[in-house]
Design goal:
- The protein is an alpha+beta fold and 211 residues long.
- It has eight helices and four strands.
- The protein has helices at 3-11, 20-32, 36-43, 47-65, 75-104, 137-147, 149-152, 179-194; strands spanning 108-117, 124-132, 158-161, 174-177.
- The strands form two sheets. A two-stranded antiparallel ribbon has the order 1-2.
- The chain is elongated and about 80 Å long.
- The relative contact order is 0.08.
């Protein structure tokens, strides 16, 4: 079916649902990074309708990229496709930036300001201290697991040679190591080292919590 025939068929169908308000809701929801189904619900349309619009927009964008003449009847779908794609990419970039912040540590979680009299000068001194998060290896592990599945995915295994202090021979057995089990044990160990106060329950002092 030619593009002209497709236009005629669509024109004879039900009234168009893609209004400016619906488009704005779809783009706004996509910018948060939520699932397609939820974005469609927020816009008051079905998932299948949303996906159909995106398919039409992608087809038109690809046709234009291939050198075809723009189809005016498909322009709004092409525009929606580009806006939604950019919005979802923005959400992904923002999420990844937050993951990197957690992995690197240094996020301010609490600011405490106290005033006291200096015992030497007798002047009132104001002192501010900050609590910051430590680097969290789990954020890096999450990234590697999803971006490099072949090497670090949950189904991946590593071969470890158990050897003594003597010569290494080629006949030694290799055993698969459960990465999930290692990660869980390491997680528990690191948590108890970094947050020992949680063993007896957290104690909150006079502090201002900031984002």
């Amino acid at each position: 079916m030619s593009r002209k025939d497709r236009r005629a068929k669509r024109a004879a169908g039900r009234p168009r649902l893609l209004s400016e308000e619906v488009e704005a809701r779809l783009v706004g929801a996509s910018r948060t990074g939520i699932a397609v189904e939820l974005a469609a619900e927020m816009a008051g349309i079905s998932r299948s309708t949303f996906l159909a619009w995106m398919a039409r927009g992608r087809a038109e964008s690809d046709a234009r990229a291939a050198g075809d003449e723009p189809d005016p009847a498909e322009s709004e779908y092409a525009a929606l496709y580009e806006k939604v794609r950019t919005a979802r990419a923005t959400a992904a970039a923002r999420a990844m930036a937050n993951i990197r912040r957690v992995a690197d540590g240094g996020i301010v979680t609490k600011v405490v300001t106290r005033r006291f009299r200096d015992p030497v000068s007798g002047e009132i001194v104001e002192e501010t201290t900050e609590d910051r998060t430590p680097p969290d290896w789990r954020a890096d592990a999450w990234y590697l697991e999803r971006q490099h599945r072949d090497q670090y995915g949950k189904d991946a295994t590593i071969a470890v040679e158990i050897t003594g202090l003597g010569d290494i021979t080629s006949n030694q057995d290799e055993s698969a190591v459960d990465l999930d089990a290692i990660a869980e044990r390491l997680d528990q160990s690191l948590f108890s080292v970094v947050f020992p106060e949680l063993e007896s329950g957290p104690e909150v002092i006079d502090a201002e919590v900031v984002d």
